[in-house]
Amino acid sequence: MKKTLPLLGAGLALFFFSNGRFVVPVAAWLAPVFLIRFFREARPAFSFAAGALLFPAAAGVMLYGIIPPALGSLFFGLAAYYGLLWLLPYAADRLIAPAVRGFAATLVFPAASVVSEYANALALGDWGSVAFSQPGLLPLQQVLSLAGIGGATFVITWFGAVVNWIWENGAEWRRVRRGTATFAAVLSAVLFYGGARLTLFPPKAPTVRVAGFTELRGDDPEDVFWDRMFERTRACSAAGARIVVWPEAAVDVGPDRKDALLARARDEARAARIYLLAAFYVKGPEPPADRGLNASAFIDPEGRVLWEYVKAHPVPGSTDRPGDGRIPVAATPYGRIGSAICYDFDFPALIRQAGRKRVDIMLDPSWDWRALDPLHTEMAAARAVENGFSLFRQTAEGLSAAFDYQGRVLAAMDHFRTGDRMLIADVPVRGTRTLYAAFGDWLAWLSAAALIILALAVRRQPGVPEGP
């Protein structure tokens, strides 16, 4: 135990900075080096018990504020869920990898990481993915256009497994040179692809000016607040915007006032000759008063409502009524425009519809809180790279930003650092096609198949430590 506790301590110290609110990018690469070593060298009963206790506790600290503590028991339930989710790849590695012959053992941990993150993305969205630990590393992020966030996760987590394989082989060059060269070649290919994509194939299309703003109601009467909303909308138009985006649930209305709001929005869009994405919240009926609709309407310069969209994925704990999960698309002079709302962008399978429908610009009205700034916006940017569209995200109480389809920041506005709270960006009017949009999460399915094959065909390799 004395031998393994330092490994656990070093691994947990790095693990705290590998995900959640306070990410240090290099920690995501290094934490698995020590944690894999701990799980392999410690007794299984002790290591699994320690993991089942410490990982949820660590998740509670790492996600504090991201998961609001006001949720009470749901906070503790979600912390436990994410802690155990992060533990699963280590458990799979401990149970399978020591019995796999040669360099193939290094595939267990990254494959298990990809599979667990994919299952999580289907259930609760892609929160907790290690892929989001590298927001500034654009060459690595380009692999998302091929394999989604699973591509980045695989590369990052494979590093720790390879270092452990070298460690177990005593760093004897004769025994590890081929495996080390294989990993180095794959990592180099991923980074070369990313660099070449950024350098040789940047967006070259004309741009359209898109603007958004945040205006909080406060204590103003409804009519006074509506006046301010449309004054800000006209200000965006005066700044040259041809598309204007409100943040999520910018206006609360009762069911009897929704038509009046949309009528005024149609008049404003027609008068300013703009496309307007008006996001609003329709209060639920009585009873129950909380079964509301989180929605948006896209209005063209003729004043026509091209679509109404209802948020498909209400956040955990919400009782809002979900929409049908169909991404709306409108053909405009500024490309094919689509939209979803905030938490919807945490579900890769949902947003992949936009890639399949060849959307050029996605509009994302959102509402965050301080603990999500800037993480949630950086997560949404991954959808742009995956699916080949530019993204304009107007966020109340968070980071608003526009990204091109390679993840470059075109403009940004932080709700907590500016008084104007207006975002203006010139956005390319044409997107691009991606392998991920066409074939989806193929890497997750390949990883699942690899795990099954490795688990069924294990052959014990002499010299691999199994723990005392």
Set down the secondary structure blueprint:
Elements: H1 5-15, H2 25-41, H3 44-62, H4 73-96, H5 108-123, H6 138-141, H7 144-147, H8 149-168, H9 173-200, E1 207-213, H10 222-238, E2 243-245, E3 251-253, H11 258-272, E4 275-282, E5 293-299, E6 305-310, E7 329-332, E8 335-339, H12 348-356, E9 361-367, H13 375-387, E10 390-396, E11 399-403, E12 409-414, E13 422-428, H14 435-439, H15 442-456
Parallel strand pairs: 1-2, 2-4, 3-4, 8-9, 9-10
Antiparallel strand pairs: 1-13, 4-5, 5-6, 7-8, 10-11, 11-12
Helix pairs in contact: 1-2, 2-4, 2-8, 3-4, 4-5, 5-8, 5-15, 8-9, 10-11
Please provide a written account of the structure.
By secondary structure, the chain is α/β, with parallel strands linked by helices. The chain has two domains: 5-201 and 441-456, no CATH class; 207-431, Nitrilase/N-carbamoyl-D-aminoacid amidohydrolase (4-Layer Sandwich), CATH 3.60.110.10. It contains 15 helices and 13 strands. Strands 1, 2, 3, 4, 5, 6 and 13 form a seven-stranded mixed sheet that branches. A six-stranded mixed sheet has the order 7-8-9-10-11-12, with helices on one face. Helix 10 runs parallel beside helix 11 (258-272). The protein is elongated and about 75 Å long.
